[in-house]
C-alpha cells in the first residue's frame, strides 16, 4: 500500500525523521499525523498544494475545511497585507471588530457576538457561558462529535468501549463526570438522559456530524433535541465550527432551527484564525468582568478581523456557494457511479460543498454504524489518491471540501483517480 508513497515522498520522510527528534510525532496537531509518516507541504495556491518533494496535489482537505476561498486567496492576501501595514495587534479593541460583529449578526441571525481564535476556545467558552446562564452543571454531547481539544468535551469522540470514555490520556475522571453522552440521530437516547439526570445546563452538537466523515442529520431528531431542551431549560449550542461557513447562514439557517448559542470557526476568515461565539442577548450578557470570563490575547486581532470581513462580504457570496455546491454535487454523483460500477460496498454523502465516502453498504447514521466501515480499504484508497496527485480528504473521519478555486477539471481528475483507487481497494 505504501510503495508509491515511499518512492514519491522521500524528503517528507527525511523531514519527519528530523521533526520527531524535536516535535512529538513530528506534527503540531495530532490530526496531521498518519502512518507511515505525514506529508510535509511547502506551498498552496488556489485548489493546489505542493510538498517538499515537489509533488503537486489537488487539495480537497483545504486545511481541514478552512479554505473555501482557496489557498493564498488574492483578496484576503491583499487585505491582510494592508492591515498588517497598520498593525497586527493593538492590545486594545480593534475598531473594525464592530463591523465584523454586525456582519455576523445579520448573516447568522444572532443578537450578540464575541470573538476567539479557534474552535476549541469557542466551544470551551460556550459551555462556560451556558452553565453560568442556566446555573446548572451537567452537559450533554453526542458520541463521535468533536468540539476541539479541551478536556470537558474531549470525551467519547472515538470510544472503543462502552461508557463515558475520555478521548485522551491526562483527562481526570472528575473533569468529565458532568459530561453525559447521547447517541446521534437517536432521540430516545437523548430523552433518556434528560429523564435520568437533573442539573443539565447545556447540550452541544455538530448539527451535521463532520468528524465521522459526514453523517446526515435526521431533521425530526434535531428538532426534537431543540424542543426537549427548551422544555427542560437546557441551553442549545450548535457547534458550527465546520458547518458555519458551508452554507450562507450555516446549518442552523439550513435547517431553519435556532439554537441559543452558535459557535462558528474555520472558513469564515479566509485562512486566518478566528472563531465566533454568538447567541441570544440574554445569554451572551452573562459575559463580562466579574461575570463569565472570556479572554484571549489574539481575539479579534486586526489581521483576522479584516480577513473575515472580506471573506464574508466579498468572497463567500451566493454565487460562490452556488459554484462550490454544484461541483460538490458532481463529485458526489461521480462517486455514486463508481460505487455502482465497481460493485463495491461504498456509500456516499454530501452536504453543500462537503461530502464523504464510507467503505460500507449504507451511509452510517451514528458512531456505532460509522465504525463498521472498512478502514483498511479506506487506507488503500487514500494512498492511491495521494500517489495520483489528489488529497481527497484528511482522514476516514473527515470530508472533502470544495473551494471557489476548484474547477470542473479538478473534479474530473479527482473522479478519474478515485475510480482507480477504489478498484485497487476492492482487490
Ligand atoms: N468543533 C468542530 C466541529 C471541529 O470540527 C473542530 C475542529 O476540527 C473544532 C471544534 C476545533 O476547532 P480548532 O481546531 O480550530 O480548535
Any descriptors?
globular; Aspartate Aminotransferase, domain 1; seven-stranded mixed sheet; 14 strands; 16 helices; 15% strand; 2 domains; Aspartate Aminotransferase, domain 2; alpha/beta; binds pyridoxal-5'-phosphate; single chain; four-stranded mixed sheet; 427 residues
Name given to the CATH homologous superfamily of the largest domain: Type I PLP-dependent aspartate aminotransferase-like (Major domain)
What is the tally of beta strands? Answer: 14
Q: Largest sheet at a glance?
A: 7 strands, mixed
> What is the CATH C-level name of the largest domain?
Alpha Beta
Strand order of the largest sheet: 4-10-9-8-7-5-6
Per CATH, which architecture of the largest domain?
Answer: 3-Layer(aba) Sandwich
Helical segment count:
16
Q: What proportion of the residues is helical, as a percent range?
A: 40-55%
Number of domains: 2
Give the integer mean of the pLDDT values. Answer: 97
SS-based class: alpha/beta
| % residues in beta strands | 5-15%
Ligand inventory reads: pyridoxal-5'-phosphate
Question: Compute the gyration radius: what is it?
Answer: 21 Å
Uncertain regions spanning at least 5 consecutive residues: none
Do you know the CATH topology of the largest domain? Aspartate Aminotransferase, domain 2
Shape: globular
Pfam family, one: Aminotran_3
Catalytic activity: (S)-4-amino-5-oxopentanoate = 5-aminolevulinate
Organism: Acidianus brierleyi
Family: Belongs to the class-III pyridoxal-phosphate-dependent aminotransferase family.
Amino acid at each position: 500500500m505504501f510503495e508509491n508513497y515511499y518512492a514519491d515522498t522521500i524528503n517528507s520522510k527525511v523531514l519527519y525523521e528530523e521533526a520527531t527528534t524535536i516535535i512529538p510525532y513530528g506534527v503540531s496537531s495530532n490530526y496531521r499525523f498518519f502512518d507511515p509518516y505525514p506529508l510535509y507541504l511547502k506551498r498552496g495556491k488556489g485548489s493546489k498544494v505542493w510538498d517538499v518533494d515537489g509533488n503537486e496535489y489537488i487539495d480537497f482537505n483545504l486545511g481541514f475545511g478552512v479554505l473555501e476561498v482557496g489557498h493564498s486567496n488574492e483578496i484576503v492576501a491583499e487585505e491582510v497585507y494592508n492591515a498588517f501595514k497598520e498593525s497586527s495587534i493593538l492590545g486594545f479593541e480593534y475598531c473594525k471588530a464592530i463591523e465584523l460583529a454586525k456582519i455576523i449578526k445579520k448573516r447568522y441571525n444572532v443578537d450578540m457576538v464575541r470573538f476567539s481564535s479557534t474552535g476549541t476556545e469557542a466551544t470551551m467558552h460556550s459551555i462556560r457561558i451556558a452553565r453560568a446562564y442556566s446555573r446548572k452543571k451537567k452537559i450533554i454531547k453526542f458520541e463521535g462529535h468533536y468540539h476541539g481539544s479541551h478536556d470537558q468535551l474531549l470525551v467519547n469522540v472515538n470510544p472503543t468501549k462502552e461508557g463515558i470514555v475520555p478521548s485522551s490520556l491526562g483527562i481526570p475522571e472528575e473533569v468529565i463526570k458532568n459530561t453525559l453522552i447521547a447517541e446521534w440521530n437517536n432521540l430516545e437516547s437523548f430523552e433518556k438522559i434528560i429523564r435520568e439526570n437533573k442539573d443539565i445546563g447545556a447540550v452541544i452538537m455538530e448539527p451535521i456530524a463532520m468528524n465521522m466523515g459526514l453523517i446526515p442529520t435526521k431533521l425530526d431528531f434535531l428538532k426534537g433535541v431543540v424542543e426537549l431542551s427548551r422544555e427542560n431549560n437546557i441551553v442549545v449550542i450548535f457547534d458550527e465550527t465546520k458547518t458555519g461557513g458551508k452554507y450562507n447562514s450555516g446549518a442552523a439557517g439550513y435547517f431553519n432551527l435556532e439554537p441559543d448559542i452558535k459557535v462558528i470557526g474555520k472558513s469564515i476568515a479566509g485562512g486566518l484564525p478566528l472563531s465566533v461565539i454568538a447567541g441570544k442577548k440574554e445569554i451572551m450578557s452573562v459575559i463580562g468582568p466579574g461575570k463569565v470570563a472570556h479572554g484571549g490575547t489574539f481575539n479579534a486581532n486586526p489581521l483576522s478581523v479584516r480577513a473575515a470581513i472580506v471573506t464574508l462580504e466579498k468572497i463567500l457570496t451566493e454565487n460562490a456557494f452556488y459554484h462550490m455546491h454544484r461541483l460538490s454535487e458532481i463529485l458526489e454523483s461521480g462517486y455514486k457511479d463508481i460505487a455502482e460500477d465497481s460493485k463495491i460496498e461504498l456509500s456516499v454523502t454530501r452536504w453543500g460543498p462537503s461530502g464523504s465516502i464510507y467503505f460500507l453498504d449504507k451511509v452510517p447514521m451514528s458512531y456505532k454504524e460509522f465504525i463498521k466501515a472498512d478502514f483498511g480499504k479506506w487506507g488503500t484508497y487514500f494512498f492511491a489518491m495521494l500517489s495520483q496527485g489528489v488529497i481527497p480528504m484528511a482522514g476516514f473521519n473527515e470530508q472533502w471540501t470544495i473551494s471557489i478555486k476548484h474547477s470542473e477539471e479538478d473534479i474530473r481528475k479527482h473522479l478519474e483517480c478515485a475510480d482507480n483507487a477504489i478498484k485497487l481497494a476492492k482487490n
